[in-house]
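Usage

Read records sequentially. Each one opens with the input sequence:
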Amino acid sequence: MSLMAVLALVVPAAIYAAAPLMLTALGGLFSERSGVINIGLEGLMVVGAFSAIVTTLTLEAAGVGAASTWIGLLAAVVIGALFSLIHGVASIHFRADQVVSGVAINLLAVGLCVFLIKLMYGKGQTDYISNRFYRFDVPVLSDIPVIGPLFFSSTYITSFMAIALAVIVYFVIYFTPFGLRIRSVGEHPQAADTMGINVTRMRYIGVMLSGAFGALGGAALAVTVTGNFSGTTIAGQGFMALAALIFGKWHPLGAMGAALFFGFAQALSITGAQIPMLSSVPSVFLLIAPYVLTILALAGFVGRSEGPKALGSAYLKGSR
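and closes with the structure output:
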């Protein structure tokens, strides 16, 4: 197998595997840039995957066609934003420990969604949706030599959506008044308060945006890769997204690059059996490779990555 053939196999897989991580990491960025730690990204992805699949199945049963999947994604965004309010109220209003609250979100999301699935469908997983997002070749662009087979062939629309949103979030965070307010309440909430910025409101917005993006990441995974929902659909993807956020130093484009790195590791675990140099490696090693790389990345970079200065600190108006 030639090098080009290997790249054409691995690169598209890396990009589509990175898309859910990218979207979820962007959600975590909004929350943590506002000063609220969000360990609950895994739970938000679970809620998003559940919402998208159940909504799509319900609409398909009602006779709605391909639009059902897009409506499912929209439902996931809305429900994820609302579900994240649990973390927001606990962390911001009641000033609970943000790490503990995030862990509770993870446990609650899995338990609640699995319970609802058994209640609604009488089994531990849903049926498969008919209107999934499938891979496609981008017209014209996929015919470009070298670049076309790597970036515009056998890809998902969610991959382009994730990259576009990363660029948009970068612009919003660094070049808009809203982004400046988000960053200011995460760096120095007292100073932001004296400038007339409502710290509590901005932090709630940050947490809700993390819920929307995190749920969208879970929904993107469900409607492309799995096609249904069960308690193991997400399987640690939210923690990878959190690692990508830290690895990317709380920067939208850095998070995108880190997500692509972890996506590449997942792509090797998926396509390794088809690559001559990796075909003799036991499959179990390829399957655990993304998680090992996550641990190594955090061990090597977490000490050097400095998050927002007020990250994890509850804010009480008038405090110093």
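Summary fields computed downstream for this record:
- The two ends are 63 Å apart (CA to CA).
- The first helix runs from residue 3 to 33.
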